[in-house]
């Protein structure tokens, strides 16, 4: 029998732009109305029934000639990247539609950009909530949940200032390939993204936001909202959590069918698919003595806690479904869940560990965009084994000998192993910062290596003896040079184009000041033992820094430290010396 479920809505955006406040505003307003069917707090979600939407926005819906037919809206209380990359059984995202929250005054911030990229990648319909209109200079808040009512009561100069902010947002989103406009000016919602100005604090614009989400959901999701109300329940594990008196439980968003007490469920673990029998379905018991209320069944779309034996190994972010006969269905289930098995490339790369499959998927996409190879990515805490896996590889892959963790624990054994194996561990609880922290570490390491190399190894360098600037012909020869490429340093030996050593730099002077080294473009005077101007070196000659065979081999593993010009010079010097060696 056909049944229309509630759309699953994700709210995402930059920290402090008002994601939680918007949810709180919806909850507070519908609860304050004290009408039947107010918002219901679920596990990992908040449910606004149709009556709750009507209580806020019925008049507006009528003005917009829109009839809300969906049963309600399920807002999931999970980070944006989780909602889009926590997987359904066929690899789809958990969220049907998204609300991208942007502070109208601050505009796009790092997490806003990350959110837009995720939306674009998953081709998810979304609206932009341009939040905090009440903080626009001169804005006078009106006691209404309608943005249009409030806007009409603002002075002309404030309306003009407001429009400038909106056009700024439109311009920024266009940089990422989206055509946007204020919701009441959108002519084709299939081609344009609607911007809903609002204030979560004063609730202005809340009516338009709910009506628009509801209208777009039923218009564009269509068959995606059709479920068999007697069909087998399917869901996504949001969190694996210990509950006092119950043991390990699963927080699950059910997106299809029905789950009942005593149903057998299949779920993913690191060692493949397992099954368990549901002993209890629980929802929060707000205001009651008991923490949870036990249910006999739950239908999509809903958030619920599942209580069953043996759930300790379940993987957050992975799909879960009711099965009739696990033994006979296990092969089909394995194949069905195969798309979410962990990433192992078998090639050089960093090691990733995260709190859920959604986080793993999000990180893999972010690292791919950043051209950072990943050889092993999985859910779980960082262990000694992970550090050992990251430590494998030669000197050329030293910047990939890293374990990166998002929202996971780093076990003591892992720290000990990292110190012993010189393998770095980087942790963050903000997903986009992980790449920034990794890049910062790489930069620091390269700077450190560069400093060591400058001090301890001969850098590739090419200089020209300047005509008319010979101050002493020998013992030591003192003459002017121009550094054509690379660098030279006190103590470096110099050779001619035949690879023959002609002398050693004793001192370097720039404008009568002694310096330790000089780089590309510098013109200065050097004194050299062994050189005799007019005999083994002439004015206008080009000289090169001399390297031992060990130094050449050392540079072969550290070429990333050189710029393109220096790499080409190193290759030239290597060819010259290979012939002479």
The main pleated sheet reads as:
8 strands, mixed
Any guess at the CATH architecture of the largest domain?
Answer: 3-Layer(aba) Sandwich
Determine and state the CATH class of the largest domain.
Answer: Alpha Beta
Count of strand segments? 33
**Intertermini distance:** 83 Å
Oligomer category: single chain
> How large is the radius of gyration?
32 Å
The CATH homologous superfamily of the largest domain is named P-loop containing nucleotide triphosphate hydrolases
Largest beta sheet: strand ordering: 3-4-5-2-6-7-9-8
As for the number of domains, it is: 4
Class by alpha and beta content: alpha+beta
Q: What is the average of the pLDDT values?
A: 87
- Uncertain segments: 30-37
Number of helices: 14
Shape: elongated
Percent strand: 25-35%
Helix share, percent: 25-40%
Q: What is CATH's topology name of the largest domain?
A: Rossmann fold
Description:
The protein has 581 residues and is of the alpha+beta class. The protein has 4 domains: 2-226, 3-Layer(aba) Sandwich (Rossmann fold); 229-339, Elongation Factor Tu (Ef-tu), domain 3, CATH 2.40.30; 343-450, Rossmann fold; 461-580, Translation factors (Elongation Factor Tu (Ef-tu), domain 3, Beta Barrel), CATH 2.40.30.10. The strands form 6 sheets. An 8-stranded mixed beta sheet has the order 3-4-5-2-6-7-9-8, sandwiched between helices. An 8-stranded antiparallel beta sheet has the order 15-14-20-11-12-19-16-17, covered by helices on one side. It has a 6-stranded antiparallel β-barrel with strand order 26-27-32-29-28-33. Helix 11 (412-421) links the parallel strand 24 (402-406) and strand 25 (424-428). Helix 2 (50-63) packs across helix 7 (206-220) and helix 10 (384-391) runs parallel beside helix 11 (412-421). The termini are far apart.
């Amino acid at each position: 029998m056909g049944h229309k479920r509630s759309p699953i809505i994700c709210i995402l955006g930059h920290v402090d732009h008002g994601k939680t406040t918007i949810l709180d505003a919806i909850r507070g307003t519908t609860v304050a109305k004290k009408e039947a069917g107010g918002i219901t707090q679920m596990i990992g979600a908040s449910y606004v029934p149709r009556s709750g939407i009507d209580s806020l926005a019925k008049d507006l819906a009528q003005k917009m000639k829109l009839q809300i037919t969906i049963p309600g809206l399920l807002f999931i209380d999970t980070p944006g990247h989780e909602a889009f990359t926590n997987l359904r059984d066929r690899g789809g995202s958990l969220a049907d539609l998204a609300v991208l929250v942007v502070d109208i005054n601050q505009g796009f911030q790092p997490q806003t950009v990350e959110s837009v990229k995720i939306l674009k990648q998953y081709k998810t319909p979304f609206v932009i909530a341009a939040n905090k209109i009440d903080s626009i200079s001169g804005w006078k808040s009106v006691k209404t949940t309608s943005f249009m009512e409030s806007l009409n009561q603002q002075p002309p100069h404030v309306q003009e200032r407001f429009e400038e902010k909106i056009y700024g947002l439109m311009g920024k989103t266009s940089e990422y390939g989206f055509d946007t406009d204020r919701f009441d000016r959108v002519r084709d919602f299939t081609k344009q993204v609607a911007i809903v100005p609002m204030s979560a604090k004063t609730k202005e614009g809340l009516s338009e936001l709910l009506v628009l989400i509801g209208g777009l959901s039923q218009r564009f999701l269509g068959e995606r909202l059709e479920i068999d109300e007697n069909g087998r329940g399917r869901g996504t594990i949001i969190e694996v959590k210990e509950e006092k008196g119950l043991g390990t439980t699963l927080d699950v968003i059910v997106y299809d069918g029905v789950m009942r007490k005593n149903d057998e469920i299949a779920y993913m673990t690191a060692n493949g698919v397992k099954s368990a029998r549901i002993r209890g379905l629980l929802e929060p018991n707000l205001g009651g003595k008991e923490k949870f209320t036990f249910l006999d069944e739950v239908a999509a779309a809903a958030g619920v806690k599942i209580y069953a034996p043996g759930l300790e190994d379940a993987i957050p972010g992975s799909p879960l479904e009711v099965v009739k006969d696990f033994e006979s269905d296990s092969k089909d289930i394995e194949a069905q869940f195969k798309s979410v098995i962990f990433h192992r490339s078998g090639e050089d790369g960093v090691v990733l560990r995260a709190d859920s499959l959604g986080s793993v998927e999000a990180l893999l996409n972010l690292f791919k965009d950043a051209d950072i190879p990943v050889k092993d990515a999985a859910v779980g805490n960082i262990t000694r084994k992970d550090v050992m896996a990251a430590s494998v590889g030669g000197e050329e892959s030293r910047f990939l000998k890293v374990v990166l963790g998002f929202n996971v624990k780093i076990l003591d054994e892992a720290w000990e192993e990292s110190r012993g194996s010189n393998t770095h561990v980087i942790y963050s609880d903000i997903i986009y910062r992980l790449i920034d922290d990794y890049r910062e570490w790489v930069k620091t390491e390269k700077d450190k290596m560069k400093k060591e190399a400058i001090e301890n190894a001969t850098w590739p360098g090419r200089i020209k003896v300047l005509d008319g600037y010979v101050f002493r012909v020998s013992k030591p020869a003192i003459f002017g040079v121009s550094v054509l490429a690379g660098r030279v340093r006190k103590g470096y030996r110099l050779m001619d184009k035949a690879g023959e050593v002609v002398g050693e730099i004793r001192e370097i002077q720039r404008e009568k000041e002694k310096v330790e080294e000089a780089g590309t473009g510098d013109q200065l005077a050097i004194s050299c033992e062994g050189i005799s101007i007019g005999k083994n070196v002439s004015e206008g000659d080009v000289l090169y820094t001399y390297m031992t065979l060990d130094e050449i081999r050392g540079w072969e593993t550290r070429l990333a430290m050189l710029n393109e010009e220096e790499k080409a010079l190193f290759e030239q010097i290597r060819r010259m010396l290979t012939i002479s060696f």
